[in-house]
Amino acid sequence: MPQxxxxxxEGAMRHIPAADFPAVGQAAAAVVLDAIEAGVYxxxxxxxxxxxxxxxxxxGTVAHGPDPACRDFIGGFTVVEVASREEAHRWAARIAAxxxxxxxxxxxxxxxxQVEARIRRG
Length: 122
Hints:
Blueprint: E1 3-9, H1 21-38, E2 41-46, E3 54-56, E4 62-64, E5 74-81, H2 85-99, E6 104-107, H3 113-121
Antiparallel strand pairs: 1-5, 1-6, 2-5, 3-4
Helix pairs in contact: 1-2
């Protein structure tokens, strides 16, 4: 079954007054709990500010801070496994309402068969 990344960019929630964040958190948690109950939830989380990130180069060198060429960063995400893009859109709409910001929906590429087989074996 296809898996979808539902995400929003860092800063997309800046329009929300600080006093409203507890309600936003409760609304978002309610959607996640519904997704768990529906059996479509795989993973979700919010990410710390981009200035806390590190970049690891192909030679293993670690640089602190975001890539200066990058302007957009994911602020939070949910990964669901659903039958169709339309179903992913329905979950994204619920998350958008809860988080009070638009959501991006992207489908994951299928896993290589040998990886899929290994996951199924456990």
